[in-house]
Write a structure and sequence with these properties.
The chain has eleven helices and 13 strands. The protein is an alpha/beta fold. It has a seven-stranded parallel sheet, with helices on both faces. Strands 7-10 form a two-stranded parallel sheet. A two-stranded parallel sheet has the order 8-13. α1 links the parallel β1 and β2. The longest helix is centred in the last third of the chain and has 20 residues. The protein is globular and about 55 Å long. Bound molecules: UDP-4-deoxy-4-formamido-beta-L-arabinopyranose. The site of UDP-4-deoxy-4-formamido-beta-L-arabinopyranose has 19 residues, from α7 and β8. UDP-4-deoxy-4-formamido-beta-L-arabinopyranose (WQD) binds next to α7 and β8.
Length: 344
């Protein structure tokens, strides 16, 4: 009998890659997605890769009754991986209540249901954004959580606290928060990838859209930071490595391998790359010359962040395997596929 896993936000960027990894590991998957930041076409991409079409329910997790109804219908959910949330830093500053409702009320409704179960396994999509500008690099899980720079970052910090407090009074609920660094890339088949709606906020989709001619020119947000080449440093992790980490973390909970019922892991490569290094890697890997200019700094950006991966490597038994070139090559292959399908 296959274990059935709920993936909320399962038609999103990281969610869809994790659904593929779960199916390939023999799990049965049911997806909840309200399609607010994804497309139903992603389900077709998942099917093309796995030859399996997971169950899909178009539910808005802000609707408490719908969440209740889902768990009354699906009584055999063995684990939940919770991706569904709003994630645009800038938008969260303009519309904080949208973020507090969509990222926190939904989490609370899910936890209310899971805390009633005899055995509940919960993986939470968190972010290195909780560290702000860390005092020391690389950043370990013991680094202090700093005052969030945005409501988005605040919802990740508060979300982790809500889960931790709930686990304290519900020993039957086991949870892990995964703090992602910068997810990039796409499945090597180019059947699924990142689908930013409107103008991409993140670096890599902006690079690939510039290279394919959808964007005029990339603006590099500042080259006067205290780094080797003056541009910001980040830890860019391939989405395939990230997806695999979710399956490893879920297995850890389902096999009751953890001493405590709440833990946190950083998911990164442990290597930092500057914006200019990412551009150079893209040009070298794809042979495409990128048009870019140096622009003003972006409000809220930190100088540098890259992960201390010791805990994920030693405790979780996971490490990233793909490098920056491979991630950018897959992102470029995906961009070309999306653009071709838009033309047809
Ligand atoms: C990376 C670097 C920019 C765009 C955010 C969230 C994080 C996660 C990933 C959700 C920075 C520079 C970018 C551009 C640029 N989101 N840049 N020109 O800000 O590190 O992280 O997205 O889970 O939680 O905080 O990622 O890709 O936006 O920026 O120069 O057009 O690229 O200044 O140095 P970021 P990013």
């Amino acid at each position: 009998m296959k274990s059935k896993i709920l993936v909320t936000g399962g038609l999103g960027f990281i969610g869809s890659h994790t659904v593929v990894a779960l199916i390939e590991q023999g799990y049965e998957v049911v997806i909840i997605d309200n399609l607010s930041n994804s497309s139903i076409n992603v389900l077709g991409g998942i099917t093309k890769i796995t030859q399996v079409t997971p169950e899909f329910e178009n539910i808005d997790l802000r609707n408490k009754e719908e969440v209740l109804g889902f768990f009354e219908k699906h009584t055999n959910i063995a684990g939940v991986i919770h991706f569904a949330a709003s994630k645009a830093v800038g938008e969260s500053v303009e519309n904080p209540l949208l973020y507090y409702e969509n990222n926190l009320a939904t989490l609370i409704y899910l936890l209310q249901r899971l805390s009633e179960k005899e055995d509940a396994n919960f993986i939470f999509s968190s972010s290195c954004t909780v560290y702000g500008q860390a005092d020391t690099l690389p950043i370990s899980e013991s680094a202090p959580v700093k005052k969030a720079e945005s409501p988005y970052g605040n919802t990740k910090q508060i979300g982790e606290e809500i889960i931790k407090d709930t686990c304290k009074v519900h020993p039957n609920l086991k949870a892990i928060s995964l703090r992602y660094f910068n997810p990039i890339g796409a499945h090597p088949s180019a059947e699924i990838g990142e689908l930013p709606i409107g103008t991409p906020q993140n670096l890599v989709p902006f690079i690939t859209q510039t290279a394919i001619g959808k964007r005029e020119q990339l603006s590099v947000f500042g080259n006067d930071y205290p780094t080797n080449d003056g541009t910001c440093i980040r830890d860019y992790i391939h989405v395939m490595d990230l997806a695999r980490a979710h399956v490893v973390a879920l297995k850890r909970l389902m096999n009751n391998e953890a001493e405590s019922n709440y833990d946190v892991f950083n998911l990164g490569t442990g290597k930092g790359n500057s914006v200019l290094e990412v551009i150079q890697s893209f040009e070298r890997t794809t042979g495409k010359k990128l048009s870019y200019k140096i622009a003003e700094r972006r409000e809220g950006d930190i100088t540098a962040a890259y992960a201390d991966t010791i805990k994920a490597n030693s405790v979780l038994g996971w490490r990233s395997e793909k490098d920056l070139d491979e991630a950018l090559e897959s992102a470029w292959k995906w961009e070309k596929k999306v653009t071709d399908s838009e033309k047809n």
